[in-house]
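go over this:
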Amino acid sequence: MRMRIRPILLVWAIGVIGGMALQGRSAAQDENPNRPPSRAGLPPGQVDVHSWGNPHQIRVRHVSLRLRVDFESRTISGTATLDLDRSPECPPEADLWLDTRGLAIRSVVAPRPGGEPVSLPFRLEVPQVPEEERLLFPSGARSDGSPIHGTPLVIESIGQAEGRVAIAFETSPDASALQWLTPAQTAGGRSPFLFSQSQAIHARSWIPLQDSPGVRVTYDAIVEVAGPGVAGLKAVMSADGNFGTSRADGRRAPEPEPGRFSFSMERPIPPYLIALAVGDLEFRPLGDRAGVYAEPALIEAAAFEFADTPAMIATTEERFGPYRWGRYDLLVLPPSFPFGGMENPMLTFATPTILAGDRSLVSLVAHELAHSWSGNLVTNATWDDFWLNEGFTSYLERRIIEDVFGADRAEMEQVLALDGLRDELSELDERDQVLHIDLWGRDPDENVTSVPYDKGALFLRELERAFGRDRFDDFLRGYFDRFAFQSITTGQFERHLVDHLFEAEPEAARRIDLRSWLDAPGLPPIDEPTSGRLAAVDRQAKAWLAGDLEARELDTKDWSTQEWLHFLGAMPADLPASRVGELDRALMLTQRGNAEIACAWLELTIRAGYGEADARLDRFLTTIGRRKFLMPLYKAMVDAGQLDRARTIYAMARPKYHPIAVESLDLLLGDPGDR
């Protein structure tokens, strides 16, 4: 089934039919009514090539949502009331430019306290960008031919709005940010489920706003849940007001009315962090300011797995400054969630694939928690600066792991990350190996590689080693204080680094080549991380490969997940199926429930043509939606000449996958609707 895209003219016509005929145009608009406001001469942080918004003229500062979630039609409808700030330099005739994708806009009005709202004319159409500014605006198409960046909503006569507009809208059933799950696709199997995933530029598919990480907003929301079979379902958001918790002011959130829920986020966040989930949920506290939500079938396992969360919060605060979001809760989503986790403030969304039963995969929790400082508190201003979010967070994650679980665990994870980075660098185009990447004309989701994460973390590790841990920790704490609740560019970070670290200690600064780290492909020389435990694994792997050790003689009883992954990663690409079978018979690898180990093992079996694992592979790919696992397994099948088999499995599993995963896999395997 192909993703359905609503024709632009049809959506525009909705506004006209609703009485929003175009009128009162300015002279400048009459000259070229389909031309966006010029971006020439704007500083880098104010030019987001993945947004049509004009925050340099009129900026959205607060979003008030009144939403109706309808499981039967698989749509969200309602209103978004936007509070606006106009810059002093904004011309009086300026329109308000917002981002949308697939939204039906029913009306746009300027509310009037105590009076009738004033209807405002609007249009939905991709503008004509002047050639001389082409590189300053969105460009590019998705695999199905639709614009990557959607269609701008242009609201005219905005001067009548007096700082506020209310937009009535409805989402498409295939909105890219939303996944609607049937009861059969959930852990409990009894009730439907909805969740959003707005990063990077998917918020525009369910809320009309300026969908740029450089435009921070506060928000409030009232959510009503409708449709058959929804009695008892609960809504949660990345905000105060989730059931079972206390609000920021210390008062317990009131019990919601049946089917109606209220939320408030008073700290300014980028739009991609506005998040919503609705399902059959329970809550378990993990301490005074942390807890976990999950379906009833998963709640006890989740509470056990995440028990160390309060200790992680405490150690991060001790090193890098206060946690400024009040609560830190987690929501375990159904298996189709395309990522490991999503750092929605106050409510991390997490994949159930980390519920290993032994807390061996909770580095993901450390990563998402670290985002409360790097990413949520200090945010990349554009997606070209994505490494500021993920490189900092990956570095902090390993520091948290070291403090909570010990140096051995942190060292193993650093070695594994470096191995994975080098493998990926060998396959990436040079343009994709750069930290400060140029993503013009591309979907920012294409930059979800190990480069912004692990190359970025290695850069910070090299800074730590050059300046000393204590000095670098002081720098980081000051960095988070200086840019708290702001969105910044790589250039701003670099100036802060030079001003507060390099100029104070020039001898240490000479050890760091900023241009090689930020602007060049590849990996500069580094101080290699090492792990004694992984070195011991290497010795056993080499002995087995050389025939000096039987598979049944491998000493694996105390291996962690990290050691298993390193062992499997040490296996050569041409390992024959007979030897793969020897490992399986001795170690029962095909039956492993740990998703990380299962993925690494199944990739090895595909390369070797080991058919005994085929049924496990089919089951894994049709029950797991995490893109980290899907992409390497399907790619391994393609590389092994099993394209037809990959397509057969994908045709069965595709309806269960999130639209973000589908977009990536359609590019790899082809849209089944085109075959």
Observations:
- Residues 103 and 171 are 5 Å apart (CA to CA).
- Confidence is low (pLDDT under 50) at residues 1-30.
- The first strand starts at residue 58 and ends at 70.
